[in-house]
Amino acid sequence: MQRFAKISQDSIDVRKPVHHQEPAHIGWRLFNPGLDFMPKNQARKPLEIKISTVVAVAALLGETDYSTLSAALTQITGGTPDYFEDEFTLLDFSATDPQPTAGSIDWTALITLFKSHGLNPVAVRNAPSDLEAEIRSHGLAIDSMPTPVAAPVTAPVTAQPVTTSSSEQQQLALDQLETNQVPAPAPVVASTAPVQTEAAAHTMIIDTPVRTGQRIYARGADLVLMAMVNAGAEVIADGSIHAYAPLRGRALAGASGNTKARIFAMVMEAELVSIAGVYKTFEQGWPSNLVKKPVQVMLQDDKLEMRPISIT
């Protein structure tokens, strides 16, 4: 964004003669249009670094053979050259069997293959550590997935029984009969073992329309949309997406890998829906029984299911 410096009224007015007592060459430089005595954009910075969130396509490689991958990409895209539109792509080797070894992958050919199908590799995930040097040498980043640390489990504390002699028990029973008292219930000792509960989800609420070309990302949260999502817009959530107005454009739920996330829309017209990276496009429109109607999208057995929502 361009920034302009505001000149105050106390600044020198170059339209008037210089009457100050500075040397003559100073005043001459103020009037000479060929010399820059004062920078025009004082507030402009040569470089700014800001945090930005982008969405990438994850390509899970089952193997690294070039011809096999080429055939698979052709099958996925149906031979359509613009099926993908220069999407950032993450090469994931978690499912590769056998795992690649140093020097076993022609990275130049692999990157060129994906780019020919509109997929632009920018990073690699779950690759063996001995491949990191050659991965970086081809301009690819290493995407590290944090490993969750399990909370320590504390063994439950068991109450120890209190023993009394037979004479003490008899005396206690007599005392209770005489005073007609009911013995107090034994104290309940609560277990200190942690109970695993699902953390409450955060929610981002958008009250204004999402315009064409605009992108909304609810990081670590559900996304609630109270206004229309226009065609060409993109809404993304690590949790579920709830749209109470027409949903067009692209909707991606479970962006961080949450397979339990869902997409709910009161008026479904999305161009693309995705849950945990499994997506489906609708260039030819939605089925007649679902289009412009309440619909939920969920992931079942690694396949997307679109179901009507019954509102009665």
**Strands side by side in the biggest sheet:** 5-7-9-11-14-15
CATH class of the domain at 202-308: Mainly Beta
Rg (CA only): 33 Å
Q: Give the class from helix and strand content and strand pairing.
A: alpha/beta
Order of helices and strands: HEHEHEHEHEEEEEEEEEEE
What is the fold's blueprint, element by element?
Elements: H1 24-31, E1 57-60, H2 66-77, E2 87-92, H3 107-116, E3 119-125, H4 132-137, E4 141-143, H5 166-179, E5 202-206, E6 215-218, E7 221-225, E8 234-237, E9 241-247, E10 250-253, E11 263-268, E12 272-275, E13 278-281, E14 295-300, E15 303-308
Parallel strand pairs: 1-2, 2-3, 3-4, 5-7, 6-8, 7-9, 8-10, 9-11, 10-12
Antiparallel strand pairs: 11-14, 12-13, 14-15
Characterize this entry briefly.
The protein has 312 residues and is an alpha/beta fold. It contains five helices and 15 strands.
Explain this structure to me?
The chain is an alpha/beta fold. Among the domains are: 57-143, Alpha-Beta Plaits (2-Layer Sandwich); 202-308, Pectate Lyase C-like (3 Solenoid). The chain is 16% helix and 24% strand. The chain contains 5 helices and 15 strands. The protein has helices at residues 24-31, 66-77, 107-116, 132-137, 166-179, and strands spanning 57-60, 87-92, 119-125, 141-143, 202-206, 215-218, 221-225, 234-237, 241-247, 250-253, 263-268, 272-275, 278-281, 295-300, 303-308. The strands form 3 sheets. A 6-stranded mixed sheet has the order 5-7-9-11-14-15, with no helix packed on it. The longest helix has 14 residues, at 166-179. The protein is globular. The two termini are 50 Å apart.
